[in-house]
Amino acid sequence: xxxxxxxxxxRDKFNLFVLFHNMALCYQKLQMLEECAQCIEQxxxxxxxxxxxxxxxxxxNRMRKLQLICKLKLQYxxxxxxxxxxxxxxxxxxxxxxxxxxxxxDLRQLCDFYIKREDIExxxxxxxxxxxxxxxxxxxxxxxxxxxxxxxxxxxxxxS
Length: 160
Hints:
The protein is mainly α. It has helices spanning 10-29, 33-45, 59-82, 86-126, 150-159.
């Protein structure tokens, strides 16, 4: 893989990230922890920064990205601890917890949004409909005239 330049293409960086993460999972299953730690380091190195930006506008995309990063950091923490690199494991766990806080805050914001939306929808359902609505004019020449009184319509028709 040293021959191919992965730094130019964002899609290739992501594929390389997934490749190293999957290799790390395989090494972990085989109890080859040093190799697993190296693969996780490589996965973190090739994690496309622009693709995993915390400035994502969509909350669902941001949550998906944060969840993946958090899992990777905590997995790396566990592996480092098992190979007796406890200080590095502590650093990774702190980073994973920091990312988890972002994830929990995003979930809270999403819940607040849905609660407000439900409240608004419920308030529309609870408001009574007007008893004598003003009928809309039958002609479609001016849609803005739907809220105009009948006398104004009559007066305006004499002007034109």
